[in-house]
TrEMBL record:
Domain OmpR/PhoB-type: start-end pairs: 131-231
Protein name per its UniProtKB record: Response regulator transcription factor
Organism: Paenibacillus septentrionalis
Matching PROSITE patterns: OMPR_PHOB, RESPONSE_REGULATORY
Superkingdom of source: Bacteria
Modified residues (4-aspartylphosphate): D58
Length: 231
């Protein structure tokens, strides 16, 4: 893998617009990419669709509590993304409960932004040098992001742009089940209008192209929901 300069993407989940803006502005000045969410429900949608290197999480959120969001990230998404909790509660038992849920750090409100930034830098490893994943390997398949190529048993697959993108999405999030809407909107970058056959046809084409060189299953159908990479 190559070592290169990379901007880290942080999700800031805080329903107080003023606090959210302060945190986001500081992080952007430090060359981080920031996305703001103002409810637990909005954050749940974002984290299911995009990759973040760290999450800053307030607990008192509308729609979905911070604790419930943590449970979703750790238990349903099976994600190990670092989560720094913001809370006005300072009791030891409460902190221990959040660490049990999977938080990596805990900052008590009110807080100094410089302290929060220091903790972020520690957990995200901000030295500007990160391993950049250019290849995703699964069974006998290798997807190369730089070359935008896919090989199976060292045979190059002739994929369309959307077929490549669908396979890339599935490989990058191997535990996630993608609905047809998910795959269409992310692979086509367009609004899904309920057309049912497009994704099914593309999945079938990908399977057939892989099957020329390997009989193993690579894409599972999760009936009534969508598709995921085969375990």
């Amino acid at each position: 893998m190559n070592i290169q300069q990379e901007q880290h993407h942080i999700l800031v989940i805080e329903d107080d617009e003023h606090i959210n803006k302060i945190i986001s502005d500081v992080l952007r000045r430090e060359n981080y990419i920031c996305t703001s969410a103002f409810s637990g429900s909005e954050a749940k949608l974002l984290v299911s669709q995009y990759n973040y290197q760290l999450i800053i999480l307030d607990l008192m959120l509308p729609g979905l509590s911070g604790e419930a969001f943590m449970h979703y990230v750790r238990e349903e998404l099976k994600s190990h993304i670092p989560v720094i909790v913001l809370s006005a509660k300072d009791e030891l038992d409460h902190k221990l409960q959040l660490f049990d849920l999977g938080a990596v750090d805990y900052v008590t409100k009110p807080f100094e932004v410089r302290e929060l930034l220091a903790r972020i830098n520690v957990h995200i490893g901000k030295n500007g040098l990160v391993e950049s994943t250019h290849q995703y390997k699964h069974k006998k398949l290798i997807l190369d992001c730089n070359a935008r190529s896919v090989t199976v048993n060292k045979h190059l697959l002739n994929l369309t742009r959307q077929e490549y993108r669908i396979l890339e999405l599935l490989l990058k999030s191997p535990t996630r089940v993608f609905t047809k809407r998910d795959l269409y909107e992310l692979a086509w970058d367009d609004v899904y209008l309920g057309e049912d056959k497009t994704i099914t046809v593309h999945i079938s084409n990908i399977r057939n192209k892989i099957k020329q060189y390997d009989d193993q299953a690579y894409i599972d159908t999760v009936w009534g929901i969508g598709f995921r990479i085969s375990p």
